[in-house]
Amino acid sequence: MKFDKLVASLLILCYGSWALQPAYAQLNLELPEIGDPTGTLMTPQQEKELGEAFYRKLHSQLEISQDPEVNDYIQSIGQKLVGASDNPAQPFHFFVVNDPTINAFAGPGGYIGVNSGLILTSEAESELASVLAHEIAHVTQRHLYQTFQAAGRLALPTAAAMLAAVLLGAKSAQLGQAALMAAQAANVQYQINFTRDNEAEADRVGMQILSKSDFDPRAMPTFFERLQQSTRFVGRELPEFLMTHPVTVSRISDTRGRAEQFPYRQYPDSFAYQLVRAKLRVQTAARPHDALNYFKAVSGQGTKLQQDVSAYGLALALIANARPAEAKPILQRLMEVYPDQSHFPNALASAELETKNYARAIELYEAALQRFPENRALTLNYVRVLLTTGKAKEARKLLQNYTRRHPPTPEVYTLLARAYSQLGNDAESHRYVAESYYASGQNRAAILQLRLAQKAAGNDFYLNSVIDERLKQLLAEEEERRKQ
User: Which residues are catalytic?
Assistant: First the structure.
């Protein structure tokens, strides 16, 4: 497939099979029929590699959350939904983008992103689940895979960069327009003829997934309707989600009719959903003081559980505003009331760190890890305090054990680099800095760090072999990118 048709196909891929924005419609493209029921257009391994390259590229363009508590939550709800789909073995990876705009998207390899703005706009956990279920349905029903044959004609770095550029078109008009102009320059003479059949199927399958996962199917039309009718956007630019995921009155009516076929009952939000929303509100506030004012305003409102969630948000806001001493008694109380909740000791230890009470922070982390031994947030934060207090050997051991159980993130590679630097092993430190850059989509910076690692490796034959092989891989990717 030529470059022009590739661009057109990737427009559909990145936005799911929702109708395109008006600016894209002006391209007048005719796309192949979406959907590949046979699954033969791209092998699972090719799809996996494209998804990983796409995700790496996103790291260089978007602020993808590195918070383990946020990531664990979105993964847990996503995998719960996948388990109720008609293809539970399909690999998926869910992640959160720290962006106040309301948006969600699916990419190759089952990579599904959701903006923090959408999570905060949702008023019930089932509303968030309905968006994820719809995106999952597009993947499991193979609505996206016809476009993968186009990506298969390009080197991975090029295909991933194009996917990211098209995806970011809704965020950056210049990036998106650049991709579209490239297609126009190739004398594209096609016509978009995109139906809503796949949308109806994704709605229907998504509702089934919601119901089987113990979420409310009625949340889908409720959320879309509220976004459509919300007066907060009157006179302003529409939310990104509504531009890339248009919702009509007839579609809302159709989904509501389907939802009414399911028995009605109450679907309470999970405690984790409420805590993560409180945390995101602090992390993504335009100014730390804005979050503090918000939680002060809602303090004492709602049920006892809601009041405690607000207290947690208030404590986080106090820490963000350099007032950790005021946060400590709040978090101590919450930790005593909810001994089975890991968020509270993690936050309390963070407050102790802010006051440089390292001994107490270590004590809290060690006690919490006895209770929650596999908790990622506690483990990584414990590693940070160990590095801060000069205990690099213990930190390295924890990180080595951690990477045997969890895929490393850019943040984990950075912690490994810090540990090896403190241990005086510059070669390993540069090697892990390189991996952090590579995972963040910064290939050239990664290559530079690997060259520095080569110089520092000395006569270590094994380490030299590892570095040389990795450098060859990255140089080959860079060469492929330059060629295309």
Answer: 135, 203
pLDDT in tens, 13-72: 444 433 333 333 333 333 333 344 445 556 788 888 888 998 998 998 899 999 999 999
DSSP state of 322: T
Shortest CA distance to 75 belongs to which of 433, 407, 435? 407
Q: What's the pLDDT score for residue 133?
A: 96
**b/e per residue 94-111 (b: at least 16 CB within 10 A):** bbbbbbebbbbbbbbbbb
* Terminal CA-CA length for the chain: 14
Q: Which whole-number Å values give the CA distances from 327 to 330, 341, 350, 438, in the listed order?
A: 5, 17, 10, 37
Cβ contact 398:382 at 8 Å: yes
How far apart are the C-alpha atoms of 398 and 379, rounded to whole Å? 8
Q: Which two tokens stand for residue 193?
A: 């003829």
Looking at this protein, which amino acid is placed at residue 439?
A: A
Q: Which residues contact 195 (CB under 8 A, 6 or more apart)?
A: none
51: its two tokens: 């998804």
Task: Find all residues with CB under 8 Å of 156, minimum gap 6, and list them.
Answer: 49, 50, 53, 477, 480
Checking if the pLDDT of 94 tops 70, the result is yes
The amino acid sitting at 89 is: A
Separation between Cα atoms, residue 297 and residue 192, nearest integer Å:
49
**Short-list 196, 19, 220, CA closest to 131:** 220
Question: What is the average pLDDT value for the chain, to the nearest integer?
Answer: 83
What is the three-state SS of 136-194?
HHHHHCCCCHHHHHHHCCCCHHHHHHHHHHHHHHHCCHHHHHHHHHHHHHCCCCCCCCC
Contact 281, 298 (CB under 8 A): no
Q: Establish how many alpha carbons lie within 13 A of residue 320's alpha carbon, considering only the half-sphere containing its beta carbon.
A: 23
